[in-house]
C-alpha cells in the first residue's frame, strides 16, 4: 500500500524517520547504560555497605542479662535472691489506639498517673521499633489473670517475666546489703564502652551497700543472642548464642543470728551496732536503725513511700553505722590511756586526787568530771573502771594533742577503715593541723583536754569504734573489716607495738572490770555472763539540733539527751568478737548501749541452747545450690509478639 | 542515506514469508523474547510472593489472556487499526469520563470500571494503545516532519486523556499515555528547537507543578526521592529498603528464594512495583543484566519492526509502542533503584497483576501485525 505522495516525499520522510529511530536507539542505549551503571554502583561499589544494612535489618543482637549473684550470710542463709516478676509492657507499633488501650488496661490493672507518666517518658526516649515499652512491674496474680483474659482484644499488650531482686529479710540487712534499682542513663554514661555492652541487657544495678560495692562481681558477664527477625520484629531463628556468665554468689561474714540479736536489742531506738570478729576482720553484724524496706526500691519506689522515708525525723535512709559521725566519749579512754602509758606520762601506779574537776595551773577554766563530787584518789585502773574524767584531763594535757592524735590514728580514729562498703565516712581526728585547716584557728589547751575524754572536735563512726576495739583486742594488730568473703587487702596500718607489752593485758583487765568489777560503770552488762567481757561505756553530749528540722517540745527534750555508746570485746582472753553500740539520745552508755552489746556477743558466743562455745575463726564452706531458695538462671519470654500484628 | 536495501535484506533471516510464524502473523524472535521474559518473571515472582503458588497461577492466567490478545491483535491488518483508530480513541475518552463519575474507588483513587460478569478494568489502559494510534492516524495522510499546527493537534489528542487519567489520580499511567502520544511526535521528526523549547518550558513549570498540580502524596514522593533518609521509617522506607535489597545482592545475588530483604518482608510491594529489587537481591547484577538484555532485545526488535514498516501510520505507531515499552522499564527500574521519584509504573511483564500485561502483549500483537502484513519486494 502506497501513500498518494510522490516517491521523493516518501524518501525524505523515510529518511527523517530513520534518523529519529537511530536517535531513539541511541537514547535507549544510553538510558540502559545509566541503569546498568546505577545497578553496578549499588551492587558492586556499594555492595558492602548495603550488605551491612541488610544484615542490620534482619539480624538483631539481643543481650542476655546474666543472672545476678546471690548473697548469703556465713551459714548460707539467703539474704538476696532473684525472683520472677511479671511486668506489663506494650509494643506501641502493634497498638492501634494507645490512649484507648491504656484506658482499658487501667480498668483491669492498677495504674496510677506515675506509671502512665513514666511510660510516656519511655515512649519518647530513643528506642528500636517493635521493642516493648514497660508500663508496670510487679503484677499480682489477679492482674495477670485479668490481662490474660482481655489480651486477645488488645494487640501489642504483653506480659514479661523477668528476674527481680528480692530481699527476704527486708529492713534487717537494709543498710549493709543496700539494694539494686533500675539502671539509669546517668549510670550508663559513667561506664566505658565495654561496660555499657556488658550492661546492655541489664535492667538493674546495685545502688548502695554490698550490692553496690560488689556490683561487678554480682553482675556477671552478659551473653548475647543473634536472631533473625522479619520487618515486624518477629524472631524467626536464633543464629548464634553465647550464654551469659552468671554473677558470682557472695558469702558474707554476717551472721544471721548476731545481726538479728543486735537488731532486736536496739529495738525501736535509733542507733547502730557493728560487730567484728577481730581474728579475721569479718563483720558479724552491721545494723543501723531505723532501717528501710529495700524491696520498695527495686522496681522504683513510689513518691509517697520515698517522701515518707525522706521526711521521717528518724532518717531511716541514713546509714548510722557507716556514715554517722558521733563523739566517741569515754569509749576512747582505753586508747588514750595506752597512749599516755606508752608515752610515759603516766604508769599504772601513778595516782592523782580528783576533786570533781580539773583546772590547768594558772588558768581560770574548770573542766568538770561527770561525777560532781569527784572520785578521790584515782589511778589508771580505777580511772578506767569508773571512767574518771579528771584523771584523763590531767594525763591528756601532759601527753599533748600531737602524741595523742598520732596514737589514735593507729586505731582507725579519723581513718577510713577500707571496709567493702561504699561511701564510708572518715570522721574527725582533731589535731593542730586539722583545726588550722578546718576552723582556721590555733589549738588551745582546752581542746586537748576535751579530746582526752573523746569530746570536743573528735567524731567517729560506729564502724571505726568497732574496729578500734578489734585492734585493741588484737593488741595492736590492725584489722581490715570485711563484709564479704573475699581476700582482704593489706591492712592500711602497721601493727602498733608498745614499749611495754604488758600494758595491753592490764588495759584489758581494766576493761573487764568495767563490766565485771563491783564498781564498773557497766557492771549490769556482765551479770550472768558465761564468758568474760572487756568493755568501755561512753556518753556523747549532744549540743544542738540541726536547724532545718522541726521538732515538738517533747521531741526536743528527747533529742537533746546524750548519745549512749558502748564498746566491748569478748572473750577477754581470746577475743572472738568486738562490738561497738551507739544509741542516739540513749543517755548513759553502760545501761542503755551495754545490754545491746551483750545481746550481740551472746548471739555469737553462745549456742542456740545458751551454752558457751568459741566459734572457730573464718567462714564455713557452704554449697549454695543445696541451700534452697530459687536459683533463677533464665526466663522464657512470653512472646505473643507479631501473632496479632496487623 | 540509502538504507532501503538493508531494510529488505534484514527481514530475510527470520520470518520468511512462507514460514509458519509468518503465516500466523507472528514474529518469532520477538515472541521468543517475550515468552522468555514472562517465564523468567514468573520465577522472580514466585520468590517475591513468598512461594505462593496461587499468585503464579493467577499471573499465568493473565499471561494466557495476554498472549491470546497478542495473537488476536496480530491477525488484524494495520489498515484496520488505522481505520478504527479514531473510534477506539473516542470510546476510550468516553470511558475515562465515565470513570470520573461511575468508577470504583480503591486505594485512594478512582481508576476502575466495573463490568458486570467480567470484573473490573482500567479504561486508562485502552489509551496506552489508542493515543499513539490516534496520533499516528493524524500523521498517516500528512507529510513529515510535523508542522506547528500538527504539534497542537497531537498535544490536544494526548493531553485530554492524560489530564483525565491524572485526575483519577494515576500518575504512572498518565506518564505512559503521554509518552505514547509524544513519542510519535519525536519519531515523526519534530524539530529539535521545539523539543528544546518544550523541555525548557517543562523545567520552568516543574516547581509550579510541584506546588499546584501534584497531590499531597505525590509531593511526598518527590520529597522522599530528594531525601529518603529524612523519614526512614515512613515515606523513605520503600526506597531505602529496595536499594538495600539491590545493593546487598552484589554481583551474583543471595540465591533464588534466599533474598532476606524480600523474604523477611523488609521490602514492600515486592511482587508488584518493586519486583526488580527481588531479582537484584537474589540473582544479583547478573540477573539485572540478563533482564536488561532481554528488554533491550525486545525494544531493539520492535524498533527494527518500525523501521521496516512501510507507511507512516505503521512505523509511527510501532516506534511509539517500542519506546513506551522502554519507558516502562526505565521508569520502573529507575524508581526502584532510587534514580527517580516513586511513580506507580510496574516492571513490564514481570510485576504481578494489573491490566498492563494484557495491554502490553496486545501492543506487541499490533507490532507483529505491522511486521507480517507488509508487502515484500520481489513478491
Number of domains of chain B: 1
Poorly predicted parts of chain B? none
Q: What pattern of helices and strands is seen along the backbone of chain B?
A: HHHHHEEEHHHHHHHHHHH
Query: What characteristic shape of chain A results from the CA principal axes?
Result: elongated
The oligomeric state is heterodimer
Q: Major beta sheet of chain B, specifics? A: 3 strands, antiparallel
Q: Could you report the average pLDDT of chain A, rounded to the nearest whole number?
A: 85
* Strand portion of chain B: under 5%
With helices defined by DSSP (H or I, 4 residues minimum), what is the helix count of chain A?
24
- Residue windows where pLDDT falls under 50 for at least 5 positions of chain A: 1-8, 625-646
* Radius of gyration over C-alpha positions of chain B, nearest whole angstrom: 21 Å
Radius of gyration of chain A: 36 Å
Q: What is the assigned CATH homologous superfamily of the largest domain in chain A?
A: DD-peptidase/beta-lactamase superfamily
The beta-strand count of chain B equals 3
Structural class of chain B: mainly alpha
